[in-house]
């Protein structure tokens, strides 16, 4: 394969600079260890791919390791279905975490031991205010908070309450464990944040063993420390939580001191990425499931026909920065187009068939014409297409009264059939309503390999042989949202759904060489776009998803086309 086909190497970004610096100064003995920490409450999306490429990429560049860690501290929203999909998706993207699959829930015992230590050290206390009261005491951005009346509770009393909370003696919300930091801190995250709450809920891994669950802010730094994570990379919304991350490490004194570094999350226009919003699309059946080809999930993109190479290349192109921005989804589409241009086999397919009969082609005769499999890849070779008297062409490649620059088929006009003969339309057949049902044509027998083989005509159109073609369903996808910023100004993003995001065409015809192709096969239907064989296909009833059209809006916007 063409060496330029490899994904561009990741540029040096501020995170890689930090890591390189730590290497120079010999921090952590030169060790680089990252983690990808999804919460198993939904499928991974293209934003997660950015984080995956970064965490696994940085580790690989320094012969380090990257762990897969489920951040499963919230028992009510998590599910094993999500755990399985996450592993499949990370692996499919091309990354390997060896046997280092970890769960924050594996650390529940250690986390509670550290919590008891904080209580004994006077660094945490049990608060018995209600949730409303706690909110009230917290203050605002402009006003300091007030100390809870429970703040000075004796350590032994807090410890006893904590252990009874753990045993399930109290209902949800009766007490919480809070860090004792500073109720007047200008950073609200430091105003005695909650470390543990009571939840009488079954957890997908620990079952009913726990009646208290730690918060993310408490569990994450300690999980990182337990795993010896050197660089804990997370998105920008955790920047204000970093002082708390450091506080937890400083006061629990685990054997290792990790460092949190924040980067800007991926935002894409015309796309929603929050798992909560994606779940709403699935639950309200606005899409066929998490892997619907219109979804920005890894599973959806895979089913749509995106390759792992294209997604990794996209992540390398967008880079990693400290400032929020919005990436044009046209760049993602451009990247997949470039990738498929190199790897996808070409095929002829007719989406909306119109029959043509070549009257001077002998009845019952058929022949084979040679077609190029991929002009970008000479090694892909050629194939033989059956040609016969009755063909299908694309309905909109014919116009009875064409405008001036219409270089396709119209009465009395010649076009070349791709890889085959020149034909002329002699007669238009219509039904009673006046709709065109068939064209009667004639062909130039010398125009393939004979005297007029090199004769040039204005247009070339695609076709398939009617008796040989396979009938297929084709699903034409468009963007799921019509608005560049779905749900802008607090609107429900579902009100911005594109009603035309899926058009299903039954009765498309495709060349017979695609019979028996495997689900996931991508092809370029010439002049139409890139398509991918859907897992819904049956051998006698293939289904193709349109991955992306041939029209490249990003190249045009960027002035590169
Ligand atoms: P969402 O808001 O979509 O539910 P999340 O941040 O809650 O996402 P997690 O499962 O907690 O989802 O994320 C796992 C990791 O992926 C985290 O480190 C998170 O920062 C990162 N991540 C999530 N979304 C993005 C994104 N859009 N761009 C880059 N990284 C992301
Ligand atoms: Mg999260």
How would you portray this structure in words?
With 561 residues, the chain is α/β, with parallel strands linked by helices. The chain folds into 3 domains: 14-103 and 217-333, Rossmann fold (3-Layer(aba) Sandwich), CATH 3.40.50.620; 109-215, Glutamyl-tRNA Synthetase, Domain 3 (Glutamyl-tRNA Synthetase, domain 3, Alpha-Beta Complex); 351-468, Ribosomal Protein L25, Chain P. It is built from 13 helices and 25 strands. The strands form 6 sheets. A 7-stranded mixed beta sheet has the order 10-23-24-25-21-22-11, covered by helices on one side. Strands 19-16-17-18-12-15-20 form a 7-stranded mixed beta sheet, with no helix packed on it. Strand 16 and strand 17 (422-430) form a beta hairpin. Helix 2 packs across helix 11 (308-318), helix 7 crosses helix 8 (242-252) and helix 11 (308-318) packs across helix 12 (329-343). The chain binds adenosine-5'-triphosphate (ATP) and magnesium ion.
Topology:
Layout: H1 14-24, E1 33-36, H2 46-61, E2 65-70, H3 80-92, E3 101-103, H4 108-120, E4 124-127, H5 131-138, H6 155-167, E5 176-179, E6 194-198, E7 212-214, H7 216-227, E8 231-235, H8 242-252, E9 259-263, H9 275-283, H10 298-304, H11 308-318, H12 329-343, E10 345-347, E11 349-350, E12 353-358, E13 366-372, E14 382-388, E15 390-394, E16 414-417, E17 422-430, E18 436-444, E19 460-461, E20 463-465, E21 470-477, E22 502-510, E23 522-525, E24 529-533, E25 543-548, H13 553-557
Parallel strand pairs: 1-2, 2-3, 8-9, 10-23, 12-18, 16-19, 21-25
Antiparallel strand pairs: 4-5, 5-6, 6-7, 11-22, 12-15, 13-14, 15-20, 16-17, 17-18, 21-22, 23-24, 24-25
Helix pairs in contact: 2-11, 7-8, 11-12
Residues 37-39, 47-48, 50-51, 71, 234-235, 265-266, 273-275 line the site of adenosine-5'-triphosphate (ATP).
